[in-house]
Design goal:
It is a single chain. The protein is of the alpha/beta class. Helix content is about 25%, strand content about 15%. It has 17 helices and 18 strands. The protein has helices spanning about 40-45, 45-50, 85-100, 115-125, 130-135, 190-205, 255-265, 285-290, 300-305, 310-325, 340-345, 350-355, 355-360, 370-385, 415-420, 465, 475-485, and strands at about 20, 55-60, 100-105, 135-140, 160-165, 170-175, 210-215, 275, 295, 330-335, 390-395, 495, 505-510, 515-520, 525, 530-535, 540-545, 545-550. The strands form four sheets. The chain has an eight-stranded parallel sheet. The chain has a five-stranded antiparallel sheet with strand order 12-13-14-18-16. Strand 8, helix 8 and strand 9 form a beta-alpha-beta unit. Helix 6 (about 190-205) packs parallel to helix 7 and helix 14 (about 370-385) packs parallel to helix 17. The protein is globular and about 80 Å long. The chain starts with 17 loop residues before the first strand and ends with a strand. The chain binds alpha-D-glucopyranose (GLC) and calcium ion. The site of calcium ion has 6 residues, from loops.
């Protein structure tokens, strides 16, 4: 294992880290086949360094048939040949580490791809075999087993059960998949499954990977004891129990798994870190973020919050209180590969925001976005979360203030959610390849085309256009991240009250770093202190609406 001097730093680097999510297929394409690759990422290391992020998190780059954008993993300890090789991975890691950027990889433990060798073996093996026991195979109901074993929906379709054809050609058993049918769920009661994920944790940790993002961390253990089969026709949080006894999600037993992973992570120096993607009741996040567990858990609260000072305040305070209890650190997130880009979300009118699928279906969806306002708010929002205690997860392209591309023709959509929702919502927009230049066949994404169509307006919104341009969103991120490095301090803040204006969020950190956000549309008085940075133009005495200012007081 290569020695990296920066790894000797303090063990809690992750507490205040700014982690930049890369969606590998859509970041940079080195060989011109239209698919982003590891060499492409390596070629952007200088860019990432200049941006000033502390770590990158790579969404899955493993061999995959892409039934779910790579979250259908066929081999957990390898690289998709379209994305690169293990040697290229090591080169990328080396290059990132050399400039002090840590690396998170994505672990997808709830399900594999149906192309995984274990699932293929299960299909070929008989009912009741050890091969089938690694997944959740059950007999169907009805005279000939033709009725699915239970009424259970999936995230990407009406049913979580798919029937197989037995090796002898007869209709056979059914297997459970909480996502697409190409994503069979593992049986986490099976010891081989447990052992294999430990092997995967060691595999990437040995290579020098610093952290892991754990996909659907709350779903692994299900109540399947004594022939029980969960029934559920909605995965809405409101129908999920919040006491650890739900049939499908967030069962207390899941933490035994993470404890065993933590033991492995702690064998490394510094210990490997992990962040859970757990869509659970807010009161249940703490267990995932515990010291003996994964250590950190995403809070997606702000990714759904409308632009409203009071709501932001309550959410921020709730999360600060929660992390104070667990001793973990906060995770502030506005955008990722699963949600509408926040510049667009913040630019939507209230009606569209209240029913995103309806907005998305409407032919004039683009006209419902106030792009300028959305961008101003996004910039203000980002400065606000940068000033908060805890870590921030950024999503590629947000540093350009990118809006959601909404022009993808239906025949080019790739997201299973699009097919399942009959065109009501798609995650493809936020996965459109990055624009690096104003011209070229794919705006600098690569020498060829792009696997998802890029909008024409990328010619005006790209790295080349913003690089070195004062006031651009890219320069705002760069400056903010640079200043932040010198300002991060103990996990504390004090709210400064604005008795007569409920549109302001204003707080000071113990070192005098003050952040003031004007959520309203009317200007507010600029407090005393040295202005360090503002998310938009300010006047001598006032902060315009939808703007954040950092001051040193
Ligand atoms: C997570 C991923 C999402 C994926 C799902 C199934 O929610 O973020 O992209 O579709 O898990 O793996
Ligand atoms: Ca490529």
């Amino acid at each position: 294992m290569a020695e990296h001097t920066f790894l000797r730093g303090p063990k809690d680097w992750w507490r205040q880290a700014v982690v930049y999510q890369i969606y590998p297929r859509s970041y940079a394409d080195n060989n011109g086949d239209g698919i982003g690759d590891l060499k492409g990422i390596t070629s952007r290391v200088p860019y990432l360094k200049e941006l000033g992020v502390d770590a990158v998190w790579l969404s899955p780059f493993y061999p995959s048939e892409l039934a779910d954008g790579g979250y259908d993993v066929a081999d957990y300890r390898n690289i998709d040949p379209r994305i690169g090789t293990l040697e290229e991975f090591d080169e990328m890691l080396e290059a990132l580490h050399a400039v002090g950027i840590r690396v998170f990889v994505d672990v997808v433990p709830n399900h594999s791809s149906d192309q995984h060798e274990w699932f293929q073996a299960a299909l070929k093996a008989p009912k009741g075999s050890p091969e089938r026991d690694r997944y959740i195979f059950r007999d169907g109901k009805g005279e000939h087993g033709e009725i699915r074993p239970s009424e259970l929906c999936s995230h990407f379709g009406p049913t979580a059960w798919t029937r197989i054809t037995e090796p002898d050609g007869t209709p056979g058993q059914w297997y459970m998949h909480l996502f697409a049918k190409e994503q069979p769920d593992f049986n986490w009661d099976n010891q081989e499954v447990r052992d294999d994920f430990i092997k995967t944790a060691r595999f990437w940790s040995d290579r020098g990977v610093d952290g892991f993002r754990i996909d659907v961390a709350h779903a692994l253990v299900k109540n399947l004891k004594d022939g029980h089969l969960p029934e559920r026709l909605s995965f809405d949080l409101s129908v999920m129990k919040n006491d650890g006894t739900d049939d499908l999600f967030d069962r207390d037993e899941v933490h035994e798994i993470y404890k065993s992973w933590r033991q492995v992570y702690n064998e490394y120096d510094p210990p490997r870190v992990a962040v859970a993607e757990a869509w659970v009741h807010a009161n249940r996040r703490a267990a995932y973020a515990s010291e003996e567990g994964l250590g950190q858990s995403f809070s997606f609260d702000l990714a759904f919050e409308p632009w409203n000072a009071k709501k932001f305040h309550n959410t921020i305070q709730y999360n600060l209180d929660a992390s104070a209890k667990t001793g973990s650190s906060n995770t502030w997130v506005f955008s990722n590969h699963d949600v509408i880009r926040h510049a667009t979300r913040f630019g939507l009118d209230a009606e569209s925001l209240s029913n995103l699928p309806k907005w998305f279906r409407s032919a004039d969806r683009e006209s419902k976005i106030n792009k300028e306002l959305g961008l101003a708010r996004a910039r203000a929002a980002t400065m606000l979360i940068f000033a908060l205690p805890g870590s921030t997860y950024l999503y590629q392209g947000e540093e350009l203030g990118l809006h959601e591309p909404l022009n993808i023709p239906s025949e080019q959509m790739q997201d299973p959610q699009w097919f399942r929702s009959e065109g009501s919502i798609s995650r493809d927009g936020c996965r459109v390849p990055m624009p690096w230049t104003s011209t070229g066949s794919s705006f600098g994404f690569g020498p060829g085309g792009a696997h998802l169509p890029q909008p024409e307006w990328f010619k005006d919104v790209n790295v080349e256009k913003q690089d070195g341009v004062a006031g651009s969103t890219l320069e705002l991120y760069r400056t903010a991240l640079m200043l932040r490095k010198g300002l991060v301090c103990a996990e504390k803040l004090t709210w400064n009250k604005h008795w007569f204006n409920s549109n302001v969020l204003d707080f000071t950190r113990p070192n005098g770093w003050r952040s003031v956000t004007n959520f309203g549309n009317k200007p507010i008085k600029l407090p005393k202190g040295k202005v360090l940075l503002s998310s938009g133009p300010i006047n001598a005495n006032s902060i315009p609406g939808n703007t954040t200012v950092w001051l040193q007081s």
